[in-house]
Structure to design on (488 residues):
């Protein structure tokens, strides 16, 4: 903040500093566009396996709240590096004139179709961009790249090399040995799977190479970390609001004074389930838009599968609900809350309404209350009509199903790089993240879910719910990290 308490942006604090710009260059089809997409957090950048997909340079600013932190320039691949290098060597008198010789090449050949790609990739460098040279560490090193690296060294611009692992083979050690002779910094960087901290590490590296960029890049790092924190918190608000709405939702219809409610049951039940599925999908899209993953394709257990493998199905309950052992570990003893009034209606097989709070539900052999849950609650008679009310589902098990699925989706989206073009598969798990929470925090979360299901949740308690979900979010991330570590 400044002296007046106003939050400063990088543009405010360093308006006189040059905007950091990075030209991403290399051989065709070595992952340049993937690197740009990840560092610019832009999933609209075209990424294809065919060489020559990028024929012209394209600039992609990394913006936060309309503030440009830095700029990535996606460039074509080298096509005739040996001929370009020969021209440079034939027109240079000494090492001191090499940057000017490169600029002269671009000026003289800008309209020559033979060197279109080389001019496109060299022009932003000549104009002051730093160099990010990308190679594929899954293919053997060969000398054909040395002409490219020599040309880039002639520009005199700050440069680093990234070894992007595209295939399964690993020749990174050979690449590191060769690249270290041409570039000031060499890093391994998986554009599709690199964690957020690796992005920040690259920016720090460029701050070391170019003193004029150190301050604006330090400000960009601070801004990006704040952005990540803000997105994670906003996702919690989205999840909290979805829980409040989904756990408290009712479906209603109007009945005549002497009309039976029984015929309404299938229709109300179907509408209630359809609403729940639609609300969950709205949550998904909100989180994806928040992290700027607006074009991804997603695959998960659909909420309308006819075989029951959905939000209301037995398999989903087993995956995301709480087992008897997990229930004990969570700190809810048998009969901790007692039997709740079961005036909601669900499918013929329930998610175990009342069983969680009674300490009875196991992953296998759960207790069902279908005979008590096939009711429609009736409102008072008014003007010759009554209101038939279906829901809410008063089973906190339902809340754990919704919350577990939401946390898995959030985690995968928050960790996903913008270079990813594979279908996002929202995974299931037989384990449970709840065990990462303390007994006190588990009890607090349980009470909130119970209040939601009973429609006794006061708006003033929303912030407390968000704070509980923040603990759940942290526990879930720790659980995921422990699972990853156990597999590697």
């Amino acid at each position: 903040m400044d002296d007046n308490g106003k939050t400063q942006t990088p543009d405010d604090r360093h308006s006189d500093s040059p905007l950091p710009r990075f030209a991403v260059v290399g051989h065709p089809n070595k992952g340049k566009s993937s690197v740009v997409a990840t560092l610019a957090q832009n999933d609209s950048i075209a990424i294809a396996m065919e060489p020559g997909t990028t024929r012209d340079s394209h600039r992609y600013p990394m913006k936060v709240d309309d503030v440009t932190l830095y700029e990535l320039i996606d460039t074509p691949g080298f096509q005739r590096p040996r001929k370009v290098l020969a021209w440079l060597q034939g027109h240079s008198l000494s090492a001191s004139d090499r940057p000017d010789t490169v600029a002269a090449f671009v000026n003289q050949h800008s309209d020559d179709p033979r060197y279109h790609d080389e001019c496109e990739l060299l022009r932003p460098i000549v104009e002051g961009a730093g160099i990010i040279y990308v190679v594929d560490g899954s293919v053997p090193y060969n000398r054909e790249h040395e002409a490219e690296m020599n040309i880039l060294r002639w520009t005199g611009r700050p440069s680093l090399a990234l070894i992007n692992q595209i295939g399964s083979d690993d020749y990174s050690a050979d690449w590191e040995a060769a690249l270290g002779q041409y570039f000031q910094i060499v890093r391994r960087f998986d554009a599709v799977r690199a964690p957020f901290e690796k992005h920040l590490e690259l920016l720090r590296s460029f701050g070391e190479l170019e003193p004029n960029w150190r301050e604006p890049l330090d400000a960009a790092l601070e801004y990006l970390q704040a952005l990540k924190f803000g997105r994670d918190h906003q996702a919690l608000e989205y999840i909290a609001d979805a829980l409040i709405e989904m756990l408290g939702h009712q479906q209603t219809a109007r009945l005549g004074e002497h009309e039976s409610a029984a015929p309404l049951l299938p229709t109300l039940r179907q509408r209630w389930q359809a609403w729940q599925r639609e609300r969950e999908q709205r949550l998904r899209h909100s989180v994806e838009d928040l992290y700027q993953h607006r074009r991804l394709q997603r695959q998960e257990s659909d909420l309308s599968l006819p075989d029951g493998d959905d939000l209301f199905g037995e398999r989903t309950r087993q995956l995301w609900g709480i087992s008897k052992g997990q229930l004990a570990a969570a700190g809810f003893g048998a009969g901790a809350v007692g039997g709740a009034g079961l005036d909601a209606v669900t499918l013929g097989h329930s998610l175990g309404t009342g069983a969680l709070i009674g300490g009875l539900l196991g992953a296998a052999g759960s207790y069902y209350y279908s005979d008590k849950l096939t009711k429609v609650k009736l409102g008072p008679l008014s003007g010759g009509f009554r209101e038939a009310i279906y829901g809410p589902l008063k089973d906190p098990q339902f809340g754990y199903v919704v919350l577990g699925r939401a946390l898995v989706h959030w985690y995968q989206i928050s960790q996903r790089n913008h270079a990813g073009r594979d279908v996002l598969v929202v995974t299931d798990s037989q384990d449970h993240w709840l065990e990462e929470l303390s007994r006190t925090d588990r009890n607090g979360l349980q009470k909130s879910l119970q209040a939601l299901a009973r429609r006794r949740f006061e708006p003033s308690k929303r912030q407390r719910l968000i704070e509980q979900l923040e603990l759940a979010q942290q526990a879930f991330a720790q659980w995921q990290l422990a699972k990853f570590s156990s597999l590697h």
About this structure: The chain has 17 helices and eleven strands.
